[in-house]
Amino acid sequence: MKRPNIVLFMPDSFSQTALDNAVTNNVQFPNIERLYRDGTRFTNCIVQHPVCTPSRCSLFTGTYPHTNSHRSLAHLLQPNEPQLLEYLVSGGYRVNIIGKNDLLSQELIQKYVQDPEENRFKPSAFPTPKYPEDHEKYYSFQYNTSNHGVYERDQYFVDRAKTWIHNHQESPYFLFVPINLPHPGYFSNERTESMVSPHQIAHLKPIIRDNKPLFHQGIRDTRNLELLDMNELKYIQATYYKMCLQVDDYLGQLREVLDDDTIFIFTSDHGDYQGHYGLVEKWPSSAEDDIIKVPLVMSGGGIPLNQVVTSPVELLDVMATILDYSDCEANHPHFSKTLRPLLHNPRVFHKEYVFTEGGYDTNEPYIFEGSPNANPRSIYYPKGLLQQTNPDSVSRFVSIRSKNYKYVKRSQDLDELYDLQKDPDELMNVIEDENYKPILTTLKEALLTWYLRTSDVSPIKKDPRHF
């Protein structure tokens, strides 16, 4: 049986909640909606870390951040680590990555990326901040419309991917296309600038000042976000939607050159606050669905059409799924579970709980962002400043999520519990509510069991004990 070509398309910071609220906000995604009809979408896909690199490392290794030690932006996959690309190459697949990195060390780039120099393309101009450096709203991540006529970096990546696909019709291949949008700063381009108006935004989660972790107020204070009124927050979310619509266009362009036998996977590494709770971007300790719930849609290769799966799944399950469809095998212990049975029977049991972890500990200051010599002109300056001056704001956390509840345990800051049936926007932290004690106890026990089962792995290869 002929093995399928596989394309993994990963925008950066694309939140599933933006798609969940699209109808309410009167925003249409024609190419994503077409992909829904042509395949199967998972509405509860949870990432294993709220930051780019650790999340991607979990996907490609099938292991959790506390198991693989990828817990920051600074540590990428190394040659000694078993991972998806290695197994695909060993199984006879041609692999390539076209786009941004945030995954591979330099040694692995040379091994798995064809023409890595081409991925360093820089556009002739970049969007500029909406406010000057000395303005009190400079750090709000609002940017001007990008220069008309500029050949944008993501369009360049998509064009290269289309050309590569056209030139590699021999099967099988695996192509990973990670692009930058809709990562902030928030800006639109000539095509999208009139597509979404702030007046369309009908669902914006309010600022919650009680029973929320320290970083909520910390981000608002260090970025002066308290100065933004509701109209400006809606402007931010409308602009975020414009960036997502540009991604929708790129997705459509990619799918135009694929045949029906090619498996196409659309997902993201994490989401974005997009103005909800009066916040922007993300945080290493974020556990809200706006950050940890991402799209996951698969099509082609016989995957059922127009199907919705509501069972909770983890982003790291994508590794085992790709290996399953490619008829390749992993030779290291991992926690990825193929989605193939669920794809063909949405009622089959997959996982009762899904997990996310993140944050840093005070005994590891070397992975904190920012430094005493940080440049205040950087749009990320407030992020490093908050971590350096209030390390508890970025304390480690772990989240356990069932279909109906979410519990967040933090090493320093307050814990959280949400009833996702009654409170899908996570506005009411019921951690102290006696009525939820039985649920909290169940989640704590399940979390402890998960840690016991995933705290370490034994190598598969056995060593001789004799001299």
TrEMBL record:
Domain Sulfatase N-terminal, chain residue ranges per copy: 4-325
Keyword presence, Transferase: yes
GO function terms (MF aspect): arylsulfatase activity; glucuronate-2-sulfatase activity; transferase activity
Superkingdom: Bacteria
Ranges where the N-sulphoglucosamine sulphohydrolase C-terminal domain occurs: 387-448
Alphabetic keyword roster: Hydrolase, Transferase
Pfam family, one: SGSH_C
Family named by the database record: Belongs to the sulfatase family.
PANTHER family membership: ARYLSULFATASE K
Name this protein carries in UniProt: Sulfatase-like hydrolase/transferase
Organism: Candidatus Xianfuyuplasma coldseepsis
